[in-house]
Design a protein that fits this description.
Largest sheet: none
Order of helices and strands: HHHHHHHHHH
Number of domains: 1
Structural class: mainly alpha
Strand content: under 5%
Radius of gyration: 28 Å
Number of helices: 10
Number of strands: 0
Length: 232
């Protein structure tokens, strides 16, 4: 009892406001935790919906099919490359979100909903820049949204799916262009092997090494990555 009394008297006294501050943290803390957990759950869908990830993955898939290498590079390798390129392309947008929304929210200058509204503006501008007017009109009519005075007035529920459709079209267009040279190699190889009577050897067995060799000689990965980066 004496030791307990000594420690209690020796401990620094806490005033009532200090005790309340320790027991009840800032009002924004629970909302921050809820927002972070929600964002983690929706992160894969958000990455595919509001970033260049869709176009990159479609092009990489077409390229792998054109080369004839079914599992090389692996899905994990292509996904990692796509994520790194997406981070590189989205860095200016993320910096704008940091300056306009995250920093004021951390400083307590705006509420959580205001931060979300501010942070969505740079993302919406990025999506509108690469969305086709035809796709925007499609979802505007489907959602029965009144015709806006300017594209920036469209809600995200219209802009995000329109952007995804536009990115799918762009990815398929780039993939088709990539596919044509390798298709030509397949046709020439098939014609040569058929003309010399090599029916026991499938033409794809001969054309696949030729396509890989051509792709390596022209530094194909550098050309593909450079073309994709320049398309944004």
């Amino acid at each position: 009892m004496l030791m307990t009394s000594f420690l209690w008297n020796a401990a620094p006294a806490l005033s009532l406001p200090d005790l309340n501050a320790k027991l009840h943290p800032g009002d924004s803390t629970p909302w921050t935790i809820l927002f972070v957990l929600t964002m983690i759950t929706l992160l894969p869908a958000l990455v595919m919906a509001v970033t260049p990830m869709v176009r990159l993955m479609v092009v990489f898939h077409f390229l792998r099919q054109a080369l004839g290498t079914q599992t090389a590079p692996s899905n994990q390798t292509l996904l990692g490359l796509g994520l790194i390129m997406t981070w590189f392309l989205m860095q200016p947008v993320l910096m704008s979100v940091e300056q306009q929304a995250v920093t004021p929210y951390r400083a307590g200058q705006v509420t959580g909903w205001e931060a979300i509204d501010r942070g969505s503006i740079p993302i919406k501008m990025f999506l509108l820049h690469y969305s086709r007017e035809k796709d925007l009109a499609l979802f505007t009519a489907a959602g029965q949204v009144p015709r806006p005075a300017k594209p920036e007035d469209l809600p995200m529920r219209v802009v995000a799916p329109a952007y995804m459709l536009s990115e799918l079209k762009a990815g398929f267009a780039i993939g088709a262009v990539l596919y044509l040279p390798f298709l030509l190699i397949d046709m020439v190889t098939a014609a040569i092997t058929t003309s010399i009577g090599m029916f026991q050897l499938p033409p794809v067995v001969v054309s696949t090494p030729l396509k890989i060799l051509l792709f390596v000689m022209v530094d194909g990965w550098n050309l593909v990555a450079g073309s994709l980066l320049k398309s944004f």
